[in-house]
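Possible regression after last week's pipeline update?

I re-ran a chain I had predicted before the update to compare outputs. Posting the input and the new output here so someone can diff against the archived version. Not blocking, just want to make sure nothing changed silently.
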Amino acid sequence: MSYQKYFAKRAVIHTLTLIILSLIISQIGKTLYPDWYIILFTDYTWWIIFIVASYLGYKKYRDLCDLSNRWDFIYNLKQEEMSYAKLEKLAVSTGIRREAIDKKIDILKSLSPIPLLLFIAGIYINNQNILSKEILIFSKKLLLGDILMYLGIGTPVVYLYFLFASYKAYENISYQLSEYKGESIVMKEIYSNNKDKKQ
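New output (post-update):
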C-alpha cells in the first residue's frame, strides 16, 4: 500500500509539473504573441491541457504500478517448479508483442508529415493571395494562412507524440523481454545444478 501512495505522489507531481509548464508557456506566449495567445489559449485549450496532463499523470502511475507488479510476479514465479520454462514462454509472447510494436513504428515512419509540410510551404510561397481568405470555425473567423500555420505546427507535434510513445513502448517491452530471458537463464542454471546434486 505504501508503494501505491508513493506512486500516486509521483503521478500528482508529474501532472502538476505539466500544468505549471503549460502556464509558463502560455504567459510567455501572451507577452510575445498576444494575438496568437487569444486564439490558441481558449477555455477549451485549458480543458484539453488539464485532461492531457491528468491522463499522462495517470499513465505514470499505471507504469510504476505495472513495473512493481511485474517484479512481484517474477519473484513469485521463481518460487515455482520449472519456473524457467514459464519464464521462457513469457519471453516468447513478449517478443511477439515487441515485433507488433516494431511494425507500428515502421507504419508511423511511412506516414511522415513532411509531404504535408511541403504542401503548406508551397501554398505560402506560391499562393499568398488566398492566405488572407477568412474561414468560419467555432464561430470565429480565422485566416486560411493562420489555419495552415496551426496545421503545420500541430501535425508534427501529434505525429512526434505518437512516434515517441511507440518508441517508449518498444523500449519498455524490450526491457521486459530482457528481464524474462535473463531470469529464465538463471533459473534454468539453478534447476540444472540442483538436478545434478540429486543425482
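Follow-up from reviewer: compared with the archived run. The chain has a mean pLDDT of 81. Marking as no regression found.
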